[in-house]
Write a structure and sequence with these properties.
Blueprint: H1 2-174, H2 179-212, H3 218-226, E1 234-235, E2 251-252, H4 269-328, H5 333-340, H6 347-360, H7 374-381, H8 386-397, H9 401-411, H10 428-446, H11 452-469, H12 477-484
Antiparallel strand pairs: 1-2
Helix pairs in contact: 1-2, 1-4, 2-3, 7-8, 8-9, 9-11, 10-11
Length: 485
């Protein structure tokens, strides 16, 4: 029984050993299967990660290309905007220059009209003076006619008186000597004929002088008619126009001179003054007026020449102004700066500006070989200082462009909240109340951050929400005014 029990035990042990061996074989198979499965999973994971990395790299490249495209588009838009601003400024400058030239042209026209009015006034004065001269000449002729007629009447009265005396004398002597009467009558008739011829001669000379005044200078005509030439003086046809009386050359003027009132051949100064002084003074007035007329004509010619010279000068000044304007406002600002020859800044200030730009990243390094970075190009396009432009640039890189723009706008503008001042508030209680109200309003939008820029950003967001909550649009003026308040 004991051996039988041992055999049974051995069989059981061998069966257990076989079973364990079989389990070991199964475990090895499972291990190999798990190893192969793990390797396949690792391969799949590596492939999947490789594809994911490729996709990420592809997306990153596309994102970088899109970012570059957006940057180029922004730069192009900014350059176009700057060109539009420059065009507007040039247009405004050209309009200002055109207005200035128009004002100068209006001033020239007004001055020209003023000169034309002055010339017209002078012409009217000259015409009036000519009319006065003609009036004086007519009056002089009428006075000479009246004088000649008066002299003729006086001579006729003298002749009648002499004839009457002669008749009375003849009646007295008729009874005394009849034989001598005949001879006396003949002599008297000859004397009467000589006196009549002399009177007619004087009348003809007076009328001749009056007629000569219309075809020769008035002083010469009066002197010719009145005998104001010495007995040595002779006149020819070159001096005396052809008339019915004076038609021989070399006639002695003494033959045509009537005697003085005293009966002498030569006239004294007193007789000439009494007889012709007034006429001579009138003639002097006429000559003075003629000289004034000639002077006015010369002045008119001088005014016309000055007007022509002034017009030429204005044209030259306008041309020079246009040339200067063309040089002053050229199309290229660089040419204008070079033409202006601006003074160079201080080297110390240039060095400080270079250090500050390099510190903020606007240029690559603090040296003369530095180049402008992307931040520097952005700063050239934005109407902000360097720090705020850097804020916008960082916001664009971190995907917070809207917030960065809002913060830059807030920091570059005035404070939206009112700040009470004791300078304008007399009551201390009112000042404290207003100060507390302003601080409460600031803390309401601060959100516990204790930051002025973030508080201003939150205020802007609340304003946008309130604005769009009521469906306001920018075309509604009343709503826009409310929003601004």
């Amino acid at each position: 029984e004991a051996p039988q029990a041992d055999e049974d035990r051995l069989e059981a042990i061998s069966a257990e050993a076989n079973r364990l061996k079989q389990q070991i074989v199964d475990a090895k198979k499972e291990k190999d299967f798990a190893r192969s499965r793990r390797q396949s999973i690792e391969k799949e994971s590596v492939c999947e990660h490789t594809n994911t990395a490729k996709q990420i790299a592809n997306y990153h490249c596309r994102l970088q290309a899109m970012h570059n495209t957006i940057t180029v588009d922004k730069e192009e838009a900014n350059s176009l905007r700057q060109n539009c601003r420059n065009d507007d400024r040039k247009k405004q400058s050209q309009q200002a220059l055109a207005r200035k030239l128009k004002e100068e042209a209006d001033l020239c026209k007004a001055h020209k009209a003023k000169l034309v009015v002055e010339v017209q006034t002078e012409s009217d004065k000259m015409a009036a003076l000519r009319a006065e001269v003609k009036t004086y000449e007519q009056r002089l002729k009428e006075a000479l006619e009246r004088k000649v007629l008066a002299e003729a009447e006086v001579m006729a009265a003298k002749m009648a008186q002499a004839a009457q005396e002669q008749l009375e004398k003849e009646e007295e002597d008729e009874t005394r000597n009849v034989t001598m009467m005949t001879g006396s009558d003949d002599e008297q008739e000859e004397d009467d004929e000589e006196e009549e011829a002399r009177v007619l001669n004087d009348l003809e000379l007076s009328y001749e002088g009056l007629e000569l005044s219309s075809i020769m200078p008035v002083p010469a005509a009066v002197r010719l008619a009145t005998g104001h030439i010495s007995h040595q003086e002779k006149m020819s046809k070159a001096d005396i126009p052809e008339t019915g009386i004076l038609e021989r050359e070399g006639i002695e003027f003494g033959r045509w001179t009537r005697p003085s009132p005293s009966g002498n051949k030569d006239w004294t100064e007193e007789e000439l003054e009494a007889e012709y002084g007034e006429h001579l003074r009138n003639l002097e007035k006429v000559l003075l007026e003629l000289r004034q007329e000639q002077a006015e004509q010369a002045e008119e010619r001088r005014c016309q020449s000055r007007l022509a010279a002034l017009k030429q000068k204005k044209r030259q000044e306008a041309a020079a102004a246009a040339a200067r304007a063309g040089k002053r406002f050229p199309w290229s600002m660089g040419n204008w700066l070079r033409s202006e020859k601006a003074e160079a800044p201080d080297l110390k200030n240039v060095e400080l500006a270079r250090e500050r730009n390099a510190e903020l990243g606007a240029i690559s390094e603090c040296s003369e070989d530095a180049y402008i970075t992307a931040l520097g190009r952005l700063c050239l396009q934005l109407p902000l200082d360097l720090k705020l432009s850097r804020l916008v640039w960082l916001g664009a890189h971190f995907g917070l462009m809207a917030d960065a723009v809002v913060l830059a706008s807030v920091l570059s503008s005035l404070d939206s909240f009112s700040m009470p001042s004791p300078l304008f508030m007399r009551e201390e209680a009112d000042f404290v109340e207003r100060l507390r109200s302003a601080a409460s309003a600031r803390l309401l939008f601060d959100g516990g951050e204790l930051s002025e820029p973030l508080m201003q950003r939150q205020l802007f967001l609340e304003w946008l929400a309130e604005f769009h909550k009521h469906h306001y649009v920018w075309g509604d003026k009343d709503k826009v005014l409310w929003a601004r308040r």
